[in-house]
Amino acid sequence: MSALVQVRSLTRIFDVSKPWLNRVVERLPKAMLKAVSDVSLEIPERSVYALVGESGSGKSTIGKMVVGLLSPTEGAVEIAGIDLHRETDTAKVDGVRSDIQMIFQDPYASLNPRWKVRDIISEPVVARGGTADGLAERLLEQVGLAAVDAEKFPHEFSGGQRQRICIARALASEPKLIVCDEPTSALDVSVQAQVLNLMTDLKDDLGLTYLFISHDLTVVQHMADVIGVLYLGRLVEEAPREALFSNPQHPYTQMLFAAAPKLDGFGREVEPPKGEIPDPINPPSGCAYHPRCPLAVARCSAERPEMRDVAGSRVACHVAGEQAG
Amino acid sequence: MTPPILSVRDLVVEIPTRNALLRPVDRVSFDIAAGEILGVVGESGAGKSMTGNAVIGLLDRPAHIASGEIWLKDKRIDGLKGEGLRKVRGKGIGMVFQDPLTSLNPLLPIGEQISETILEHLPVSKSEAEARALAALEEVGIPAAKARMGSYPHEFSGGMRQRVVIALALCAEPDLVIADEPTTALDVSVQAQIIALLKRLCRDRGTAVMLVTHDMGVIAETADRVAVMYAGRLAELGPVRDVLTAASHPYTAGLMGSTPLASKGLARLNQIPGSMPRLGALPTGCAFHPRCPKTQEKCRVDPAPPMQGRAACWYPMTVEEIA
Amino acid sequence: MNAVARFWESDIGWSFRHSPVAVVSCIVVLILVLAAIFAPLLAPYDPFDPASLNLMNGFSKPMEPNAFTGETFWLGTDDQGRDVFSTILYGMRISLFVGFAAVAFALVLGVSLGLIAGYVGGWTGTIIMRIADVQLTFPSILVAMLIFGIAKGITPIDMRDQVAIWVLIVAIGLSDWVQFARVVRGATLVEKNKEYVQAARLIGRRGPAIMLRHILPNVLSPVLVIATISLALAIIAEATLSFLGVGAPPTQPSLGTLIRIGQGFLFSGEWWILLFPAATLLTLALAVNLLGDWLRDALNPKLR
């Protein structure tokens, strides 16, 4: 299996400073937010890679850089060997662009309310000058809606049905990679199951590759082949699903698993995790997790840990793997 | 058995619209005892938040309580207005919303907000109220509470704000707390902190809690009993372990089965076909019958089934089906 | 027909049917607009045809036979013997034409600049909105008079009457684009961060296509409200300018010009020459304004 997506030392910095005049008057420095910091990963073809993390972890920013909605500050994203932000051959860029699609979190905001479903679904093809006769109808049936729905407007559909329309639009340009940014977190559980099943079926039928972004560990556990855990813009652990869920190595991953509510956790009394996510504009030195980490040693606050292999996982932690032996 | 703190009997909430009379809450009955946490779950549009709002008298017009009774201890509180309602809020019932910013006054320091609420409802002096406000903030785990009494809501993080809201909801020592999706806007690690806090405080004081959420995991870990709502009606009501592990209503069974955890190891999740009907287009009979695997003629034709045992269902799940 | 039926059944249609103010204002506006459009058919006299004028009919009182000719005029005549009713119908044509054209001009200008300021942002957006802010600090009537004055200065004398109407339209339109631009920019800032716009960008749509095909249809409801209220303001602005003598020329009198002419006769007792054009202007502006108010309320819940 070759890697369809190659992400190399990806970094994205946002300027979140106040306006120039306020800075001068209040003598404030420029505020830079490092949303993504030196993230490297590979996504093999026909696999599902999941990024998990809490708010401010940078998972959505990575997704937007992979599809090309944002440009990296440093590092590179290569899709099938082509770097969207540096490639100058427009034919190649166009080819890669139609290979990538995205499904968004909010099914109410991701469909233009003034457009008919037919026009929404066929836009990726029509925008490239193609003809889309019968395309919308065929795709609607493929995602479990009816061909007659092509004549309707988005407000006539429920949240789950809208997400199906979004999936149909994503499929229109026959992509290889679909970036799914929290595709089911706005949906109810029973509808979430329908949409996740549809995504699994489509992946198998069409040979798709997913970059799946979520904060919901149960969904990730169901969908992903490989999981990357992000904390404050950094990849702290990456492992195949079984390895991660049976034997999480990074203390942050362990904390996440312990804190997540369990369906069979009746009357479970957990020691709640310490502290909160720090201010990403002034992240802690060294390992960003060290102020909350139960295993932290002096080295953790001084030196940023590099990714290393521990028991089948890639872990960015000085201490992981040592407490066991 | 001690009488319940909150008793809701056949509550009906109606919204007249130009096309139809909608019933977002339809003949819902339940009790909550002192120190008990009742989880209310359901998907969006099931009527769970509307039920909580009806109890505390927060329905927005044109929604109104059409019939039924709500008792807080020995006092009937549906239909209260003005001064009576104001006394019930705070002293009788505390409220924790999903978005902590909506329940805090952005222009008042948090210490002042809490001590004012205490002064309003409890017979104490001003300095006593301030001392109690400080104690309340310390109790919910605000670091350096004394220094932060003068801070404004926007100076806190989301998790800390929700702690302040909990302090505010509990400061007048209410008998009942209604928590409407208190952790939905929070991250997993902070959610665990808030849930643990809510549980501890209510157990210590014997406060009854109505916890409205869509998160079955939170319910499992927190609630004593759980009420499952579907299309405005109570589908199932019972002890949390029984309902979650051996659902009696086919809807609860489907809901539990469709969570990714319950289908662990399966390539596909179990799914309930279709989606929840809109309130304006409820099916006849049992509202769940078009999606139900056990539907029979009776479910389509007869009026909605009454509660029998734990579930409002003509054909509840049998022991064999559960296994 | 289908569209009318759909409107009638929609939320807006329902709100319309249940608002007596909206129904009455709409009927009034419709009657006045139709009367203006069909003025040549409805008016009993052509006030601008010197051949049909009889100076002897001057200063006829309303509904009274003229002392010399015995002719009766519903709303009386002015000093030249022109039928006031007919001049009002023709004057309303000018007023409404200038109003509609000025609003259309302001709308196109304001919506385009607002879209660009909102979508492109950066320095382009800042410059557009600063110009708008500066212009807002001047009363719009002053802006219009300034533009009018400049235009007067650069057009040859014999062309002035012909271009006067167009200058009026540009002057009122330029003084009115700012509110369109502001509202559209605000709405665009909201819409451009919605995910359907990101989806369109992903597909490879370019900026202009996204602005026109995706964002524009979604920012139009507030524009419609402002356009309606602006129409009332534009009609009044036109009347004000004409009243001040810098608007429509006496050869093409608008309601404002008629009021200015009538004002001269007020003290000599010929009240009808002033009153009827003024009452028409008031009715027109009020009805359009009330319609705009209703529209704003009716669309508001949709704007969330």
Question: What is the structure about, briefly put?
Answer:
The complex is a heterotrimer of chains A (325), B (323) and C (304). Chain A has 325 residues and is an alpha/beta fold.
Biggest β-sheet: strands ordered side by side in the sheet of chain B: 6-7-8-3-9-10
Give the C-alpha Rg of chain C.
23 Å
Please tell me the overall pLDDT of chain B.
Answer: 88
Count of DSSP helices of chain C? Answer: 13
Question: Can you offer a commentary on this structure?
Answer:
With 325 residues, chain A is α/β, with parallel strands linked by helices. Chain A is 31% helix and 22% strand. Chain A is built from eleven helices and twelve strands. In chain A, α6 runs parallel beside α7. The two termini of chain A are 34 Å apart. Chain B is built from 13 helices and ten strands. In chain B, strands 6-7-8-3-9-10 form a six-stranded mixed sheet, with helices on both faces. In chain B, strands 2-1-4-5 form a four-stranded antiparallel sheet. Chain C has one domain: MetI-like (MetI-like fold, Orthogonal Bundle), CATH 1.10.3720.10. Chain C is built from 13 helices and no strands. In chain C, α1 crosses α2, α3 crosses α5 and α11 runs parallel beside α12. The radius of gyration of chain C is 23 Å and the shape is globular. Chains in contact: A-B, A-C.
